[in-house]
Amino acid sequence: MSEWSPDIGRLQAHDDREWIEVERIYCGRLFAYAQRRTGDHQAAEDIVQETLLGAVRGIRDFDANFSFEQFLFGICRNRTIDYLRRRRARAMQVGEDEDGTPGLDSVVLETETPSAIVRGQELSERAKGLLGDILRDWVEETWASGEYTRLAVIEALFAGAWRNRDAWERFGLRDETAVAGIKFRALKRLRQLAAVRESGSDLLPVLAAAEEGHRLLDLDVQEIWRERRVSCPSREWIARHVAGRLEAGPASFLRFHLDEMKCPWCQANRDDLKSPAGEARLAQLIDKLEQSTLQWFRSGQVPGG
């Protein structure tokens, strides 16, 4: 199966056929994401509908630095957070106890914190974009060379903020020095990739400082790694993993990425691919969304938000 992405120009022109195809392709994984976090079918359906309406309203400002799926999931994440905040507020008003379902805390961790805002001020948007690009370059190189353990180690260190000792024990490496060596070589390669992409970039001194033990880059990498989803495999790879058709190397990385790093976007894709029993309900939701989309376009209320 190939990874489909819409024609952004047609979406911005409010082509109803293109938007209906978006709903058909992405509805299941958006629903799986919202359902996993709310534990409520009806709430998840409402969040998906709000997400797609938000996408229609916001598509004119689409940022080409991100994929369309990232654009959609970003809206879905924000709508889910809004729902959980409202639910928590209602629970506090009536004095209810926490119910133990996946709640606001687990989702808010994915949003910007005050320190993230400070980091954003310290690095320009251009430099942050460059960092996202070279991280993606490094991941693609490492995947192509079959270095799946190295990729998992760097994801654990950069995206998960693991200690060297934790990574050494989890991946069965010789000692903590081996982990430090993997990190050192990764940082060195990132500097090389940055130099190729943009000679004289203001990111290069930051990378050099990080190699000497500075903490700023570690924090920025964690933010950008997650925001840009640099190590997320395509849906095709997740489908092959679900079907048990992956070789040991990539399968081991996907298990780590899904089950230990708990990537919410990839978990949503996996949940969608593994839930054929919900096809009838999903078909009803897609039909409802199609009718809503056509109604929005005919009403003339969408342009301009």
What is this structure's SSE topology?
Blueprint lengths: L7 H5 L3 H23 L2 H18 L9 H26 L10 H5 L5 H9 L2 H20 L3 H12 L4 H8 L4 H22 L5 H9 L3 H14 L6 H8 L5 H13 L3 H10 L5 H21 L6
Order of helices and strands: HHHHHHHHHHHHHHHH
Name of the top-level CATH class of the domain at 1-111 and 275-305: Mainly Alpha
**Are there runs of 5+ residues with pLDDT below 50, and where?**
95-123, 211-219
Overall mean confidence score, pLDDT? 78
How does this structure look, described?
This protein has 305 residues and is mainly α. It has a domain at 1-111 and 275-305: RNA polymerase sigma factor, region 2, helix turn helix motif (Rna Polymerase Sigma Factor, Chain: A). Helices cover 73% and strands 0% of the residues. The chain is built from 16 helices and no strands. The protein has helices at 8-12, 16-38, 41-58, 68-93, 104-108, 114-122, 125-144, 148-159, 164-171, 176-197, 203-211, 215-228, 235-242, 248-260, 264-273, 279-299. Helix 2 (16-38) packs across helix 16 (279-299), helix 3 packs parallel to helix 16 (279-299) and helix 9 packs across helix 10. It is globular, with a radius of gyration of 21 Å. 31% of the residues are buried.
Task: State the main characteristics.
305 residues; mainly alpha; Rna Polymerase Sigma Factor, Chain: A; 16 helices; globular
A few lines on this structure:
Helix content is 73%, strand content 0%. The radius of gyration is 21 Å and the shape is globular.
